[in-house]
């Protein structure tokens, strides 16, 4: 019998098993963690020195129970890094979007977009939206701040898909600024984790309430009765002052 090369492809196998079982409220988190962003746009993990120093352990994720274990054989450094080395598939490419579409009806967002070229490509392959993100600045020093490239991405997609933004949004004013520059929504990562660490579920609720209250106050002070009233003229950027 001719021997077939055995290609154990963690990403595809994982997606095949996990995606069909997912329902709407959990899809975003799962996509963040498993599929497009790190796999496609960042096929390797950045050098996260704090993780190395603290010997960070990758959490066991409920979604992957019985499918994937994050246990790795590594005595030193970051176990997250060791886990990523074992499981990330650097061969992922744009063609995989088509394949993803074929195994799920969930909306697919491309996260980690920082250039107009990638934003345009995302529109070309017809995804449900893009997330302008630098992965919270974890991956690589000197990536641009997301707010500074937001307009470039908004212009590049030309209204064809929604543009979301994350990274460094800490106040309702940050959310307001992003919406004024064309984002449809703003996502937060660490603030809710800090709230969780400080006071569990209540802490998370409090963080979201604070952001909402600050955002509403900003809208009122800028004379915006509704979200649709927030416009580009409500903010001034460095580029504006050069004109
Ligand atoms: C503990 C932690 C784990 C993260 N893991 C991932 C990940 O696996 N993939 C990814 O694309 N982004 C990951 N991120 C980045 C977030 O998805 C998000 O882009 C970032 O936290 C947003 O910035 P903010 O924390 O300043 O709000 C992670 C962030 C944190 C804090």
TrEMBL record:
Cofactor(s) listed in the protein's UniProt record: FMN
Residue ranges occupied by any FMN hydroxy acid dehydrogenase domain in the UniProt entry: 1-240
Gene3D superfamilies in UniProt: Aldolase class I
Entry keyword set: Oxidoreductase
Top-level lineage group: Eukaryota
The keyword Oxidoreductase is assigned to this record: yes
Entry annotated with the keyword Cytoplasm: no
UniProt-listed InterPro entries: Aldolase_TIM, FMN-dep_DH, FMN_HAD
Name by which UniProt lists this protein: Peroxisomal (S)-2-hydroxy-acid oxidase GLO4-like
Originating organism: Prunus mume
Gene assigned in the entry: LOC103320165
């Amino acid at each position: 019998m001719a021997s077939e090369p055995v290609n154990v492809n963690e990403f595809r196998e994982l997606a095949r098993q996990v995606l069909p079982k997912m329902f709407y409220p959990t899809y975003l988190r799962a996509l963040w963690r498993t599929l497009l962003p790190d796999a496609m746009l960042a096929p390797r993990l950045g050098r996260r020195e704090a993780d190395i120093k603290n010997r960070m352990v990758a959490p066991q994720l409920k979604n992957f129970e019985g499918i994937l274990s994050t246990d790795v054989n590594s005595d030193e450094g970051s176990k997250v890094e060791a886990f990523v080395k074992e499981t990330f598939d650097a061969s992922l490419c744009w063609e995989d979007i088509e394949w993803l579409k074929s195994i799920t009806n969930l909306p697919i967002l491309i996260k980690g977009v920082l250039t107009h070229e990638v934003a345009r490509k995302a529109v070309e392959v017809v995804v449900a939206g893009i997330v302008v993100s630098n992965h919270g600045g974890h991956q690589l020093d000197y990536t641009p701040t997301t707010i500074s490239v937001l307009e470039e991405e908004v212009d590049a997609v030309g209204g064809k898909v929604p543009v979301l933004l994350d990274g460094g949004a800490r106040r309702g004013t940050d959310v307001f600024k992003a919406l004024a520059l064309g984002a449809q929504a703003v996502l937060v990562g660490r603030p809710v984790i800090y709230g969780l660490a400080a006071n569990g579920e209540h802490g998370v609720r409090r963080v979201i309430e604070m952001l909402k209250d600050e955002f509403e106050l900003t809208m009122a002070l800028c004379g915006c009765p509704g979200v649709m009233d927030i416009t580009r003229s409500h903010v001034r950027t460095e580029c504006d002052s050069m004109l």
